[in-house]
Task: structure prediction
Amino acid sequence: MTTPDVRGLEQLERTVLDETASLASALRRCLMLAGYARHEELRAWALKELEGYAPTDELPSYRKVPAALEVMVDLYLPGQIIRGNTQRISPNQLPEHARNRGIGESAPIRQGVRELEALVAHDERALHLSPPGSADYVLLMTREQHQQGNEGSHITSLHWNISVASIAGTLDHVRTRLTQFVAEVRAAMPPGQQNPNPDQIDSAAQQALNVTGGDGSTFNIVAPNAKADRGGTASANVNEPAPTTPQPWWHRTSVIWGAIAAVGTVAGVIATVVVK
Result:
């Protein structure tokens, strides 16, 4: 009994090689191709990239990008209120519960590719993404400041500062994986064959995406580490060593803004895109 050929490779190839075409369109064509081949794992990968990854999903390495941890503080000083003072902090300066959850200088990118494409299209240099539980951590850190005697300091935000170039790098990685997938399928097809068969689709998925087929198989993607850092402006400081005894960030804040208050100057605040 012969294995029927599956359709859709040519359409996927045209879309993935067209830099002006949406990556979401390419993934939908990949989804259809996986359906024709009855390849559940390939279909699951394409669907996750389209719809986004759930909080309980393990992320591929290319969806973890370098990001600086920052807090935004409002300062109530004698005779004036200074809002929006942004300070970078070390992971060691987070509440213990946040550290135990692994929150650090690497941000998970769980959004679907259409949303990521829209963020990149805004042409901003950076965006803010709040870690899970950030509202509780903001209250806890504000309470810690007040206990230290800094009753005029109120934290209003805890977020990752992510370079948009890193988001573009994530999208580029997905397009490159799709391109390699098409190339692997083409390499497996003998001359004269018009459409691939399910075995060729399965082999190409394993080569390009490390997606294993068969009953009871697990969905697993391994991506080159270099891709995750592509273009990320925050990556330069991601691996810097943490100080042995870090000075509380709110102490540095009070000193800096106390000096500013003495001379009566206030720094401007640069607006950034905030991811809800």
